[in-house]
Amino acid sequence: MQFKLYTDVHEFYRDTYEVLMRHEAQNMIPLGNIIIGHEGKDKTDWRDPVNWLMVTISDAKGIQLTAIMTPPHNITLYATDNIMNPEAINCLIDGLDGREIPGVTTEKNLAEYFAKEYTLRKGITFKTTMSQRIYELTAVNPDIQKIGIVRLLDEKDIHFFPYWAEAFYAAASYGKTEMSIPQDAEPYLYRIASKKLYILEDDNGIPVSMAGYTREMQTAIGVAFVYTPPYECRKGYATSIVAQISQLALDKGFKKCVLYTDLANPTSNSIYRKIGYMPICDSLQLKFEW
């Protein structure tokens, strides 16, 4: 097995893009990252490839394992064709010696195997921070009732959006109810300017739910950032906005929409299935504890 460490994101993109595309929906995170790095349009925060860890493990047949880490985030892995090769994983762990790896996020079986081998080697432990399911949709259920009007988030929403964003982050952090109070408008204006977030307004023009797009792939687009304030829940708003922006993405030419759900939230999983999302695999976020 050959451990190859990349310093040039364009070379890494060329070597791994077609491999990762074999499971486009499953690999939305690493694919999205290498596209960001290859295009070089946005180097804010973690997006500057100069700080990334990019590795492939290959044998005579080609790449067997792809790894990318965009600090401070977890390392993400893909075993080519989802065929797990213990020798390739051990080669990766050997090559990571001396590097700080906070955790791993990837397909469940690969995540568990890597974490067990890595922590055994390091004499540390790991814990699950989130059990996820990856879904994809190719057609929206035509029986879904469309409620309210969907529009792009814009600058006039700055009076409430930062609070919704922080509430979303808190809810996504393992069911917390405590949220940070926004102090600076800039990060939220950056989100608004991306023109990837949408608001659902009720019949009175009042914002009641939020959802948006994440990474854009060759044929797929990610759907995420789904949030409805607790006092507006159980009214069908989240179902409606996710269904509507999913259909909008398909109308734009994407062949499928992809989203990640927290398996600890049966309500959201049920909602997405009703819309037409079908599970393709489970994924784990594992944190290493030193």
From TrEMBL:
N-acetyltransferase domain location, by residue? 148-290
Q: What is this protein called?
A: Acetyltransferase
**What are the protein's GO molecular function terms?**
acyltransferase activity, transferring groups other than amino-acyl groups
InterPro entries on file? Acyl_CoA_acyltransferase, GNAT_dom
User: What lineage does the source organism belong to?
Assistant: Bacteria, Bacillati, Bacillota, Bacilli, Bacillales
Name of a matching Pfam family? Acetyltransf_1
Q: Which Gene3D superfamilies does the annotation name? A: 3.40.630.30
